[in-house]
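The instructor's notes for this session suggest beginning with a concrete chain rather than abstract definitions. Hand out the sequence below and ask the class to guess, before any prediction is shown, which regions might be ordered.
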Amino acid sequence: MVMMTKKVNIGGMKVHTYKHTEDFILESGEVLPGFELEYNTMGELKEGVKIVWVCHALTGNADVKEWWNGLFGKGKLYNEKEHFVICANVLGSCYGSTGPLSTNPKTGKPYFHDFPQVTIKDIARSLNLLRESLEIGHIDTLIGASLGGQQALEWSIQCPDLFENLIVVASNAQHSPWGIAFNESQRLALQADPTWYENREDAGQNGLRAARAIAMLSYRHYETYSQTQTDKQEEQLDNYKASSYQRYQGDKLVERFNAYSYWVLSKAMDAHHVGRGRGGLQKALKSIKAKTLIIGISSDVLFPVNEQRLIAEHIPSATYHELESLYGHDGFLVHFEELKECIDHFYYAAERVQLQVG
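After discussion, reveal the predicted structure:
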């Protein structure tokens, strides 16, 4: 069942809710007694338009014009005249889809810490149920970065005939021990907050501030801080720019996110492994049929470029591009023009090959 438009954002994206009323068996064996996905769309789902499905990052949301406004919107690479764009808030998130603060139908109270573990495989399966409800039989482009890239890879393996093009930015096929260690450090910060174990909506806020500060060290780069957070006064003994920046980032996240969703989605990221149950990573990647563009970011310390090169190496006929950036992992949220140019070239090259084959 699909409930159609609830509201229209200032940016013009329509907001909808999909309701799945049957039990949803998770990869862990636990069961969600139904779920909801809140999703945004841009453009009209009609004949002749190209469908573009976007998968968002860990603390991202379905409003792609908010965080990828350099690529989506009027006159942009993906626009409402030529495209129907859809992005869903993932299971476990706090932006309208079923998550830890949703009501558990068994108790009539929010799940809080009782929300079951979800994996990237579960998230991809839920997106596909939404896709089936909309009767979408073919998607021109599936695109995602970071946790969104993990979803895109997994979904393209689950449904290899569904996608024409696959674009994965700053992501991986298996989350690394390094990435898991970063996430566990952030979860330790949550657990160090004495309110974390209380069943209340604002539990763990101070822990979440600290977790975000830790995360920023993996999202950016040594040179990012050197060039943007260096203090000019040599005699300074306290109140450094880098210190206030870390606190500012923590405060910003607390205003829009909650600690429960941060815990659940960081766990989902840790469990990401496309080869699980498929005979290994290489075999799984080789099953992808979509024309594929893999983009790495030169200064990314969280998802280093060797992870993207590995993906490109094992997906048949994949193209790899490396983006030079000062901003580390977060470069995909900064370098819109470079991303557009790279994606444009990818589409152009794919069209040339198709014409030659035809």
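Then share the key points. The chain is about 35% helix and 20% strand. Residues 1-5 have pLDDT under 50 and may be disordered.
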